[in-house]
Amino acid sequence: MMDCKKVLKLIPQYIDGELDEAQKKEFETHLENCESCKKEYQLEKKIIENLKNMPPLELPEDFNKKIHEKLVYQKNILEKKKERLKKTLTVAVIAASFILMTVFVVNIFKFDKSSRIESSAPLNNIKMTQSADLSKKEGINNEVNMFSITGQRGLPAGTSRKITKNATISLEVEDVNVCYDKVFKLVKEAEGFIESSDETVFTDNTKRINLVLKVREDKFESVVSQIKEFGKVTALRIDSKDVTEQYYDLKARLKNLEIEEQKLQDIMNKASTVKEMLEVESEINRIRSDIESMKEQLKVWENLTRLGTINLSIRQVSKVKKPTTLVSFKGIGRDIKQAFINNVNFLIFFIKKLIIILAIVLPYGALAFIGYKVYIYFKKRR
């Protein structure tokens, strides 16, 4: 038995006589028993009969021409859009390839230039006597007190180092007062202070200022590095001394003396004669004197290791004016030869880098060419 949904679907086929005998009989049986489907059938039948009785519509004479023009116009627009998209993608790929190639070449030249600069860097004319090169320490937070001391005699792991740092710097500048202001500002920013200063004026009205600076141990290298930039360095000396073992050895001795003092104090309280009391008191006074001396020494070491000392001498020098001289042609042959060699070297270097670039790019170019050919092949098949 057909349901209403199926009957409604089959109404057009029934009207056109396209149903077989079994479907037609089942369809008619359903219409006899279902009033709503019967009404829907009669409505559709009436609509179809009215459409059949309508006179045919006459199309305009130029209808086909206009349809053809519209189809051609839409096709042209679609082709233009495709062409524009293709050009945009091509330009984008070329631009991206050019940018990547430029960055690659610049990095190659930059690397080669930096390598040549590093290999031909001149030696420093200033003689510095120090245990390690300061330039290797600049910019590095050298917190040596954070390293654990393992394996040292009498010191447990995790014990902080005690290192004293001292520097002696001599500078020549054109304006002593300006340099002094820079140093003062630098030391203040480094949470240090100027311990002492003295100024000397010479007969030629030039000055020299001697300063003793105290800066935090962790900012010592940074301050020294920046002071070097304030003028011409004529002398530089940096000394570091590790007093870790002495410091903790003295601290242990101090603790033992304090324990001994406490024991003597207990004996003093138990002394029964004046003689015993005097002898014990004399020993206590001696131990107390040693304790105070050790405490002072520990305090000195703590201050020395907490703050670095910089002895700075700033001397004013007059600016020497170089006399103007005529430029001669002396050595022009040597200069031409050197220029020619430089140009040939640059050409060889450029060709070498170009070969390297081609060796890197060619595999990608081959892959791109293969991909393009595959794309054209499938495009033609469509």
From TrEMBL:
Extract the InterPro entries matched here. Answer: Anti_sigma_zinc_sf, DUF4349, Znf_put
Q: Where is the Putative zinc-finger domain?
A: 4-37
Pfam families, per this entry?
DUF4349, zf-HC2
Keyword hit for ATP-binding? no
Keywords on record: Coiled coil, Membrane, Transmembrane, Transmembrane helix
Q: Which residues form a coiled coil?
A: 34-88, 240-304
Q: From which domain of life does this come?
A: Bacteria
UniProt domain DUF4349: residue ranges: 161-374
Q: Does the keyword Transmembrane apply?
A: yes
> Per the UniProt record, which residue ranges are transmembrane?
89-109, 354-378
The similarity comment for this entry is: Belongs to the zinc-associated anti-sigma factor (ZAS) superfamily. Anti-sigma-W factor family.
- From the Swiss-Prot or TrEMBL record, give the protein name: Anti-sigma-W factor RsiW
